[in-house]
Structure formats: C-alpha cells, structure tokens
# Entry
Amino acid sequence: MIIHIHDFPSFETTDSITLIMSVRPLEKEPFLRFLAKKFRFPDYFGHGWDAVNDCLGPALTALKKKNITLIFPVVPLESARQWKTFRDILAQTRDELAALGITLTVALIDPPQDD
# Structure
C-alpha cells in the first residue's frame, strides 16, 4: 500500500517506513529546500550542510519507526562533491539513529557510473 507521509510516496508498517525520494538532480540550494520541505525541518533551519546534519536525525526520529529506508531513484545532487557531503551526513545520521535503536538504510537505484 502506498501512502503519503510528509508528501512522500511511502510504504509503511508498524515498525518500518520506506520513503521514495523522488527528486531529479538538483544544485545544492534547491536540494536543501527540498529536504527542508519534505522533512519539515524547523523554521530556524539554516539551509547549509551543517543545518541538514543537525535537523535530519531528529526529523527521521520523529517518524517513530524502528526501520527507515530512503530510496533515491537517481543521485539527487548535480555536483559529485555535494553528493559526497550528503552521503557523509547520511552515514553520520545512520550512526546516530543506530544508537537509538533505529536502522536507517539508504538505497540508490541508479548509481553513478565510474569512468
């Protein structure tokens, strides 16, 4: 069953949720606005990577699920450097959530090809 949580197409059970992050590749600023809107970051969100790092974990924790999966159909950022920064934030968020007993899985369906 597909339902919408914070405007995400998602699959949800009692303990798990899978969010499909449908976004075409964006520059940094539009991507940060996308995250802020979709995860309902607080009004004080500073629209930088440090602010994403501060807000993503609490936003995911607020979903009250033990297993959270984020699926990206494509790399969501146009810049490889920005994508690496976001991946680092996801890894840190994963570790923080693990300490709370929450599993975060991130899947990229169409990963970039190495030349």
